[in-house]
Amino acid sequence: MKGYGIGDVEALLGIPASTLRFWEKEVPYLAPRKDVFGRRIYGTLDLCMLSRLKHLA
């Protein structure tokens, strides 16, 4: 499973990277996995969740 980096998610959903990081801290069930370098890797379910959060914000 490849996944999406934070820049990819920012471009796809129009959510700034700073907001993605903030939501990761504040929303307990949003926890993207991290690669060996510590970079966030978002899966398809993460994208669905972020899309819903965007519409709530």
Provide structural commentary:
By secondary structure, the chain is mainly alpha-helical. It has one domain (6-56): Orthogonal Bundle (Multidrug-efflux Transporter Regulator, Chain: A, Domain 2), CATH 1.10.1660. Helix content is 54%, strand content 7%. The protein is built from three helices and two strands, in the order H-H-E-E-H. It has a two-stranded antiparallel sheet. A hairpin with a 5-residue loop joins strand 1 and strand 2. The model has no long low-confidence stretch (mean pLDDT 94).
In short:
This protein has 57 residues and is mostly helical. The protein has 3 helices and 2 strands. The protein has helices spanning 6-13, 17-26, 44-56; strands at residues 33-34, 40-41.
Number of domains: 1
Oligomeric state as shown? single chain
Biggest pleated-sheet summary? 2 strands, antiparallel
CATH architecture: Orthogonal Bundle
Mean pLDDT: 94
CATH-derived topology = Multidrug-efflux Transporter Regulator, Chain: A, Domain 2
Percentage of residues assigned to helices = 40-55%
Q: Which residues form runs of ≥5 with pLDDT under 50?
A: none
The class by helix and strand makeup works out as: mainly alpha
Q: Helix segment count?
A: 3
Outline: globular
Q: What amount of the residues lies in strands?
A: 5-15%
Order of the strands making up the biggest sheet: 1-2
Query: What Rg do the Cα atoms give?
Result: 10 Å
